[in-house]
Structure formats: C-alpha cells, structure tokens
Fold these 2 entries.
Entry 1:
Amino acid sequence: MKQLSQYFKGYLKETFFGPLFKLLEASFELLVPIIIARIVDQVIPHENKGQLGLMIVILFGLALIGITVSLSAQYFSSKAAVGYTKQLTKDLYQKIIRLSKEDRDELTTSSLVTRLTSDTYQIQTGINQFLRLFLRAPIIVFGAIIMSFTISPKMTLWFLGMVVILFIIVFTMSRLLAPVYSQIRKETDKIVNQTREQMQGMRVIRAFGQIHREENQFKNLNNDYTDLQLHAGRLSSLVTPMTYLVVNLTLIAVIWQGNLQIAHNGLSQGMLIALVNYLLQILTELLKMTMLVTSLNQSFISAQRITEVFDKTNEDVDAKIDTKMSDQGLVVNHLSFTYPLAAEPALNNLNFSIAPGQFLGIIGGTGSGKSSVVQLINHLYTPQNGTLSIFKDGKSPESIREWRNWVRTVPQKAELFQGTIRSNLLLGLENVSEDTLWEALDIAQASDFVKEKDGQLDTVVEAFGRNFSGGQRQRLTIARAIVQKAPFLILDDSTSALDYLTEAKLLTAISEKLKGTSLIMVSQRTNSLKHADKILVLDKGYQVGFDTHKALLESNDLYQSIHYSQHRKADD
C-alpha cells in the first residue's frame, strides 16, 4: 500500500484543510446543546426577550458558519480525492501497458478493466468520505462525551458504555463484510469478462442461434452477483437497527436517570435536554462512521487489487539478451511453449529455419499453434524450452525493443483506431514522408480506394474502422506494417477478406518492392502459400511438415487433405 500513499503528495494542502474545516464544523455543533440548555434554564424562566433574541442570532450564526466550513471541507476533500484518483488511474494505465503478456494473461483483461475503472472509483469515494469524516466523527463522539461529563459525570458513564458497545458492533460487522466485498469484486470481474466476450462475439452468437444460452450464462452469473450483494446488504442493514436499539436504550436510561436527578435538584431541565442532544449527535456520527467503515472496507479491497498490479515487474524491453551470429534469417530449435495457467503445451519440439528474405508459409487446422508461433516471433512470450532466434546481417537483436523493431505484424483482426488514415499509418512514427506512406499503400493494394476518398490521407477513420469494409481495413493494416520497413513482415491470416487477385498482387508487390524482407504468412489457403520458399505444417502444436508446396503435396497427408479440400485433385 506504500506506493498508493505517494499520490497524496500533490494534494497535501487539500488533505490538511478538508479535515480541518470538518473539525471546525464539529466544534461549532458541540456548542449548540450548551446554548439550548442556557435558553431553557436561564432565558425562558426569566422571560428575557433580548437575551433570547441574542441566543437565536448566535444559533443562526453558528449554523451559517457551519454551512460555510462544511462546503469548504467538501471542496477540499473532493479536490484531493479526484486529483489522487486521476493520477492513480493514469499511472495504473501506464503500468498495465508496460506489463508483460504473461502478467496480463494472468490478471486477465476483464479484471484489469475493472481495476482501472470500478476499483479506482471506489478508492476515490473512500478517500472523499475519509477526509470528511475521520476527524469529524471522533471529535463529535468524544467531544460530546467530554461536554456531557462537564454537565453530569454520572450520566456520562451511560454514554461511554453505549460508545463501547457500538464500536464492538461496527468492528464485528466490518470483519464479517470484508470477505464478502472481496468476493463481490471478483464476481464483478467475471461479469465484465462475460459481457466483453458476448459483445465481441455477438455476430457468432447470433449466427449459431446461441442467444438464449448466452442469456442464461449471464443470468446465472448475475444471480451469483446479486446473491452476494444481498448477503452484504443484509449484514450491513443490521448495523443501523442495532445502533438505534443501543442508543434508544441508552436514551431511556438517560431520561430516567435525568428525571431522578432533576427531582433531587442534581440536574436542570436544560442540562437534560443538552445531554439528549449530545446523545443524538453521537447517534448521527456513529451511523456516519458505520457508512465510512463500510466504504473504507471496499476501498481497502480495491487498493489491494490495484497494489497487486503495481507489484508486478515491468517488462524490461531494454534488457540485454544474448546476441547470436548466423547466416540464417529465422532459426527455431527444439522449441516448446505452454501458455500461462494452461494444462498442455501449445507448441511441441519445433525445428525449422529460413534464410534472410525468404517467404515462410504457416498452415494448419484450428488450434494447431499458428498464432502461437507468431507471438513467439514477436517476442510477446518466451518459450520454456528450446530457442527461437531472428537475424539481420548475421546478427541477432540485443534487446527486446530492438527485436520488436525488426518485426512488423498484421494481426488476424484488422485493428484501426479513431483518427485519420494518416494517423493510423504512422501510429506514433515521426518524420515519415508522404511518398513513403503512398508507397506503403501501393504495396498493400490500398492506394486506389484511398485516392477515391475526398480527404485521401486525412480521411476520417471511425473507431475500429467501422466506416471501411473488411478488405479495406486489412489492406490499411498491411500498409501500416509496411511503412516502417523491417527485416520481418508477418501476415497472420490477414488476407482472408481479400479476393485471390488482390492477394496475388499484394504478394507480388511485397516480393518485388521489399527485397530482403522475410515474409512470414499464416493462411488457411494453400493457394496463398503456393510460392512460399518453405511451408511449416502444424497439427495440434506439433510440426508435421516443413517443405515446399510441391514437395508437401507429394508427401504430406495433412497438407494434401487441406489442399484438396479447397481444390479439385484434377486441377493439380
């Protein structure tokens, strides 16, 4: 939790003045019962209208000052809470994007979204309430007890007994509620994950008629969440009636004992009214304290979840890695890889290599490990066994950052961002000429439809590229990967929305204009890989073939079955 306290540094003034103004407000409130007691005992019996008017003016003045300091306290507390959360959220976001792929997989995307939104807001609420109440409530409670002691030490014993009992109730309930709130946060993660999955896969869900199944899954998850919330609500709802029970019993005892003392001239009516007012002030503040403890419980759980993210080590992309020498472009040697928390390896004992500038095709059925190979080539994961090395001019990269600068990848799903075609092509790059951008568009077979747009390179791109067709999105993402020419270009099944003619033009342009670039293409279509120098055939994580299209067609059963499922045998 230490790293979370640092965010108060920029708001020390607000953190100080918020509780201070609440302290002043509490002090003014403690004076009110004494003034009322004076009115009852001295002003009214003597029918002193001037003194009564003065007392009323003093009460209004205290109320006005109380409102002023209360608003000031609210302002400073809110400013500190919002400022704290703003910086915390910013740093948490930066921390998340610097985590390794393994850590993000372990924490899960849905949980990270919840921590970045719901948990930070819960901390903001907790800080706001804490700064407004952590001084006010104790001052009112203990101040009321002290003021009661000045009126009647004997009656104060009832106050002390009540406060002790109520603190025991609040402490016990907070201990019972803490694990429930922790489970609620986990259920929130599950709901976010389920909703995210369903929204992303909505077309597939509808296409396969699984709407009712998904509705039932969400309903069951929501019911579990509801049950936990109801359980927490039932437990927390017990605090108020128990508090009122204890306070009302104390009130009865105070009135009973007060009447006895009034009868024996040990207490005045005004003093009894003051004692009752102090008792009601304690009741109000303890109810607020209960609310504060509940909020702080949830904030503490949220803080633990955020601290868990901060405790993760950043991926050190500048750390030195072993540099190797080779005349190859890509070398994979006895490589095996298992995803974090997975029960079985995704890849088993792969062995292959290609020369610089060669065209490598990767093919296989669903779940065969094609995308896993791509992620390893991008150095998003580190293999548990074996090695994977890339080379440029006979040398391998010296750091992860350099490694990733050598590789440009076009993912399966074309990812465009809100902005313009130009901003999507550059994506953070600087000092890139328009000629370079148009050359990349030409190679990607995208220049024709971009020129047709009124804005051309400055044409608006909506979020996720919704205003472009699937093929256009794919070609723009391919152009983006080509802009910064790298030794390796990976097309991860990223031509699926292109027709055969456009795809053929694309591959021809890459081979002619990007000489020296090693093209690694994942595809389900053997026709797309026909001119590859080597084709890697995968089946359930195992390498079952590595050769040319012609050789695989003659000797590899799996490749034959894939090819002939797409073409008539007589055609070849």
Entry 2:
Amino acid sequence: MIQGIGASAGVAIGKAFVLPNWEWDLPEQKIDVGDLAREFDRLYEGIRTSKVEIRQMKDELREVVGTDESYIFDAHLAILDDPVFMNEIQGIIQRQYKAAEVAVKEAIDHFVTMFDLLDDEYMKERALDIKDVGNRLLKHLLGAPEITLPIDTQPFILVAKELSPSQLAHLNPNHVLGIATLAGSTTSHSAIMARALGIPLVVGLESKLEEPIATGDFMIIDGETGIVHLDPPGEIVASYTELQRRQQEERQRLKTIVEVQSVTLDGKEMELAANISSMKELDVALQSGTHGVGLFRTEFLYMDRSRLPQEEEQFDVYKSVAEKLDGRPLIIRTLDIGGDKQLDYFELPEEENPFLGYRAIRICLDKTDLFKTQLRAILRASHYGTVKIMYPLISSVEEVRAANKLLAEAKAELQAEGKPFKSDIEVGIMIELPAAVVIADMLAAEVDFFSIGTNDLVQFTLAVDRMNDQISHLYEPYHPAVIRMLKLTVDAAKRRGIHVGVCGELAGDVRALPIWLALDVDELSMSANAILQVKERLLRLQRRDSLALFDNILECPTSGQIHAMLAGFQPGNAVSGD
C-alpha cells in the first residue's frame, strides 16, 4: 500500500498507462548573426500556432467541464503574451546567438527553477503552467509529434510525473478510469479539472514509490483516501470491487429521493442547496434535487486568466445560472480573493499573514470600480431569476453600509441607463469571523440573511490553519467554542426574523444535522454530491429529538464528548451526556 494525497474522490481499478515526460534534451545550437531574423520568425510562428491550439482546447473543454474550468487556458495564453517570459527568450536568441528552441528551453528551466525554490504552493503550480506552455511551443519549434494516449477503448489508469491542463484536456473520461501523479497538489489546475470531470485522482507519489510504475501494471487508486495499491492480492481487489459496487448501489438508491421534500418526521423543513463554482457543478446539483444555490463562488471567474472579467462577461454567466435554476434561489458571493486565492494579473501586497490581511470585502471596498462592476452584473442578472447578493468576511456594520452604498450607486447607474434589475434584491453576509458573531444582533438589523461560513469560522475561532500539518489536528469543527458561536449567530438571526443558512463544509456533514435542526437553521448549502446523503438522514430525524441532544451538547466541555454524543445519537432516542 502506498499513501499519496487524495485530490479527486472515487475508486479506480485497472492497468496503468504511464505517460512519457513531454520534455526534450537539446544540444547547444549556435546561430550566425544573419540567422537572427529567421529564428525570431520561427519563434513568432510557434507562438501563433500554440495560441491557436490553446484556444481550440479551451473551446472544446468548455463543453465538457463548464466555462469556469476552461478559463485555465486564459492563463496559458497570458504566458505567451507575458513580456518578462518573452523578453527572456528573445534576449537569449539575440545576445547569445542560440536557436529559438534552445532559448525557449533555457527560459522554461530558468522560470521553473525560480518558482520551485519559492515556499509558495500557488507559485509552484504556476511553474507547471509555464512548463506546459513552453513545451507546447517547443513541440512546434522542433516539429515533434504530440504524445498520444492508447487508441483502443480499454479503460486505463493514467500515471504521469505531472499532468498539465493541456494533457488533461485531451483525455476521454470514458477511457480514463483514474489518474495518479508523482507530483502535484489538491489545488493544482489539473486537480480542479479532474474533480470537474469526475475522474479519481491521487497526487504526491514521487517519494513514496520504491520502484517506478510501468505501463501494464495492475493497480488500484482511491481518490478519497489517497491510497494506491500496486499489483494487489486478490482479497484487496475483491474488497475494492465490492466498495465500487456499494458506491454505485448507494448512488442509485439515493436517486429515488431526489423529488422527495426535505422535511423531518415531525415537519421541520430544511432547504438543501448547493455550493458551486461552475455550470457542471450546477448540473450535478439539479440532478440531486437542489433547492437552489446557497453559494456561488465568483472568484473562479477571475482566476486563471490574463485580465479582470468585464461586466458583460460576468452578467452572461450569472444570467445563465439564474435561468437554469428556473426560479430557485441563487446566492452570489461577491469577489473573495486574497489569502490562498491569488490572481496572476492583480498584484496583491506581500503580507506576513495574508489570511488576516488584504482580502475579500476589504479589497472590494478599496477597489470600488472592480466591486461596482461585479455588483452591476449581479443586479442585471437578478432580472432573470431569484438572485441574492452576499458579502464575505464581514467584521463590522461599517463594512456592510459601505458595500450597500456602492450597491445603491450601481442601482442608480443602471436605472439611468434603462437596464432592468430587481430593485429589492436581497442582501446578506457571510458570518465567518468571531467579530461578526459577537455583533450578530447588530449585523442582523442591516441585512436580509446570514450564511455561516464554518470553514473560516472554525479557523479564526481556534486560531488554527488547517493546511498547516503541524497544527491541523487542532482544527476541530465540533469544539465547544465553535458550537456556542453557531448558537449565538443563529439566535441573533432568529430574533431579528431573518433567514439563516450554513455554507461551510460542516453543512454537508451528516453528523452535524441534529445540531442544525436544533438551532432551527433554514438552509444548508453544500457540495452537490452531498445533498442526497444529507436529505436521506434528514428524512429519518425528528427535530424534538435533536433539541434534547443539543441541550446535552452545550454542556460538553470537550470536542471528544461531542463527537461521542453525535455518534451515539439514534432517531427516536434521547442521548445522555455521560
């Protein structure tokens, strides 16, 4: 058994196909001064051809994984237009009299080495983008053929050192059972695309393999746990085959409750909505009977591209989602960048602790033109559905009022231009900071709804970065302090009579459902794949049992006791605090 990192859930069982490295070792090729013009012509023709290919891949991919993921290739086009990258290549040709392909290879190696030395996972992933684009350009300069996958229809598990978005774009999901890479991370472009395509993916195997994987090796990968088995014994194969069968049966069984109303045995209704970042995720959510979209992460419209999305571009996306929801609610979270979400073309200041720094609503209230462009697009889309606006990372009443002032300005502009929008559009905020919890009663007087972002709320309440391996074990959503934070927030919303939902990972955790029922939360918004599992659990519960359980949970001094109490909870049975 080999322990990698699970990056896209699912189990794959089959034979490996090892993708050769798409790289070349080039000898030094000096040129004469008179050949400079020819080398520059070759370089520019290679760039033009590469751009055509990338645009074709983007168009093809958009039909498969949705608009948001296809924007990854805008970042690749931006590299070919990047003056720093291009000046490096041109300088090597002109000053060192080297052939175009040698100059491109040296420039790739220079930037990849530089980025790899940085202690920044985001920049390491961008190094892969440069390598991908540079190797595509090299392919055209050398006249080398594209590396192809097996042409037969026998499905396989793809194994590669790294897998670039360009390579992944050419995969037929029907032929690829799963993917295993030696390098990579859960935040890479390839991981994002694998999840969108529904392909199991395990990354980070390089230091774990005693011997390299070869084409034809029989293997099993588990994209949930990150476990890989090479040439496993029969009992392991049988175990995972049975797991696959049970997972398929479970998916089929859950489909029978898609149209069933989300209500407990004693009549408590709960709206089960989806968190989405693409149209593909929306399709999955609709197939799962979603009540609507409780969180549309708009930052994905801004990422992996060369410029800010314009108003018309955003409007088209928001309108498409609203129309597809056909009257169901759509909560659009305004731009939430900063922290671990950076934009290549939008330079953010270097900060000692970016998670506590210049991000989300703080950027929007500072860059008002950027913010108002998004607000105008959302307002215009509100004419086509039940659209709502949600501000992230709110810590004060002043921030809400400042954001609403800009919203009012956007409304006035659209009114003057004669563009239709919903004038009484609902406005809400994410509760994800302890400061917001403490003044939740004051914030509730300013907005139409709350949505609790449990991921950040847990991190900020406990001062724990869950991505930090040394302290990630301290990230505890069921900490007594977190439970009390949740109660304070929901109680404040209920006293004011506003809608309150949850959109963090805890919303999709079936163990937490009795807590949400006891608190009388109105909506849970989660990954589309979790909706039916949560609904099934909801249909078997009664709110009155959850109330008795929650009273005991509030008295628990440790998270371990809370875990035990939730694990022992059975519908129809009271649970003691012992």
